[in-house]
Design goal:
The protein is mainly alpha-helical. The protein contains two helices and no strands.
Length: 148
């Protein structure tokens, strides 16, 4: 199998002389760092100390063994029955207020539903009035002060 020979035509680009450009010469100033005895650099690095962790102590474990029974109950605390009665009364006051609030919320929902129904009727009437105006129901161009 032989590859056919291909001779590309000779092409000479026109000669072009670019103007000579010389970059300005400048000298970089010399810099020498002071040498230390250790061969490295002697830099003053600020010292940083992390804050110390707070000391935590474990609470003492109470003993549940039989022996002298030390009472932790304070003697100035009111009787349990009196505290229960106060909690019961406070709960009843809350339940009465909650029932009253729910009744008012139900009235508000009913009034809101009536207002929404009237809004639907008003929009239907406006659409009916806008049928013959420029732009129809969608754009409804109308003069100022018409009221809808």
């Amino acid at each position: 199998f032989e590859v056919p020979k291909f001779d590309a035509p000779k092409f000479e680009a026109p000669k072009f002389d670019a103007p000579k450009f010389e970059a300005p010469k400048f000298d970089v100033p010399k810099f020498e760092a002071p040498k230390s005895s250790g061969g490295g650099y002697d830099l003053d690095i600020p010292k940083f100390e992390a804050p110390k962790a707070p000391k935590v102590s474990m609470p003492s474990v109470p003993s549940f063994g039989s022996g002298s029974s030390t009472s932790v109950i304070d003697e100035d605390i009111e009787p349990q029955e009196l505290r229960d009665q106060r909690a019961r009364e406070a709960r009843q006051v809350f339940l009465d207020a909650d029932k009253e609030a729910k009744a008012i919320e139900a009235q508000a929902r009913a009034v809101r539903n009536i207002a929404n129904d009237k809004k639907k009727i008003a929009n239907e009437k406006k659409d009916d009035a806008c049928k013959t105006r420029w732009g129809g129901k969608i754009l409804c161009l109308r003069p100022f002060g018409v009221g809808y």
